[in-house]
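A common beginner's mistake is to predict each chain separately and then try to dock the pieces by hand. The better habit, illustrated here, is to supply every component at once so that their relative placement is modeled jointly.
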Amino acid sequence: MTAFLRRRARTDAAEASVIRMFDVGMTYPNGKVALADVSVEIPSGDFVFLVGPSGAGKSTFIRLLIREQVPTTGNVRVAGRDLIRMRRSQVPGLRRRIGIVFQDFRLLPNKTVYENVAFALDVTGSPRAIVRQRVPQLLSLVGLQDHAHHLPTQLSGGEQQRTAIARALVHDPAILIADEPTGNLDPVTSWEIIQLLIQINELGTTVLMATHNQEIVNAMRRRVLALEGGLLVRDEAAAAYEREY
Amino acid sequence: MRFVRFIGFSIVRAWQGFWRNAMMSLAATATVILMLVLLSALFIVITGLNSGLEFIESKVAVTARLVDNLSVTDRNELVEEVEAYPGVASVEYISPSEAMDRLRQSYREVGRELDLGDPDSNITLFASLEISLDDPNASGDVGAALTAHDDVERVLTKQAEYDTLLGIINVIRTVGLVGLGLVGLTVLFMIINTIRIAVYSRANEIEIMRLVGASDSFIRWPFILEGVLCGLVGALVTIVLVAIAWDPIQPAMVTIFQMPTAVSAQFLTTLSVILLGVGLGVGAIGSWISVRSYLSVAR
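With all components supplied together, the output reads:
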């Protein structure tokens, strides 16, 4: 079912760290320091939580990874690419190596589940044969094969987030970035989404999840990166949401 | 293969976009039609006047009124002398009685009879030489040489008519082009706004396209083609309008402006090509400006 995800995991093994930040600082033109001296390495296949209060720098951290912004200092490498030296024309290539999902799902309301997922392939010029092959595979992976022709408005929040996850995986990315993916979901549905992310991670995709959900972070016991005031204050394996010592 | 997919994707999205934003798209198309109709009118008038100019140019001739009582010998010498001038094709002597016959004839052509009052009056016209030229530019030199000649009383050329028509054409052309430029700017502005509204109304889609790795050309070209579509539809509608109006206009072009029939037959094709080119060009430039400014801001 997910041979392409496994195949991708093997190809990326050559680059040990799928995300590498070194002394990264980001100061906005208004003088606000969003990140300062952040150095992080995330190995391929890791599952990492990014936590911290609002305004701590989580969103900036993610924007730097998808090269929506370029840091004012330091270096960022993602999936083997140097994001500082990257030309504008190379950014779409990078984004196909990164899947991203958001709290508000960001689905196109006038397109069905199938079309929303296929859209990500269409807009990158993928052949129809690939679309016909890949979309059902992904809908099956996220458990929406029976909802392919439903509009987002006909789906529950959890199903909408599954659709967004399927769309994020269409290009077989090395990393899946989830920005508060359970923020709009009830606890039961949130756990279902986490189970799906674990499954995707087990198939070889690195997962970075920004969250405020203490219960999930505490129960999962995965690596935690904690940001506060733009500083990386904690980088701990098998950790809880709050410092435990 | 990827290029074919890109073209197909862009055309389908442009078509969907055009109809999704139908009111604005049709308003922009209407301004394109207005501009192209004005362009057609200007083109028709200027081409007509140019044809008239060419007709006069081809008929450029100099008439030299001769002094009274010129002897036959002197007259023949003068004819030979004038025939030797550079640019002169032929010289014809018109006697006073021939001149009178022509005058009568021209009256009859408009349905009147020349009335000289007293039938016994001995009104006579001047004898003259009618000099046709094979080089229209020689008219000035030939005129000057004849004016200086003792046997010539007065020189008449069509230079004045030619200059007047040229002046009119230049004024119409200048006023027309300025007017057309202003309308063109309005059209450009309309298309820029139409496409900008289309872009903003699809901001979510564009953001998703960026996040999933669509290249700038995949994002940009559907909008550019949407602008091109406004120009294309505008041009096609205008071509149909001009083709309908051409039937009554064509005979006028031939009779009033002396437009050669061969030119007149090709005219509609030439005008259609120009309308298509201008329509597509304005659509493409307007949407390009709009999309370019949006994409460079929203990265």
